[in-house]
Amino acid sequence: MNYRSQRQELISRQYRLQNAIDDKDYLFPDNLQQALELLQEAMAGEQSDEEFYGYLITLAPNEEARKIIAGIRDDELKHHRLFRRVYRDLSNQAPPLAVEEGFIRPKNYYDGIKRALLGETEAVKEYRKILFALQNRVHINILTEIITDELRHGILYGLLLNM
Question: Given pLDDT bands bounded at 50, 70 and 90, which one contains residue 114?
Answer without folding.
Answer: very high
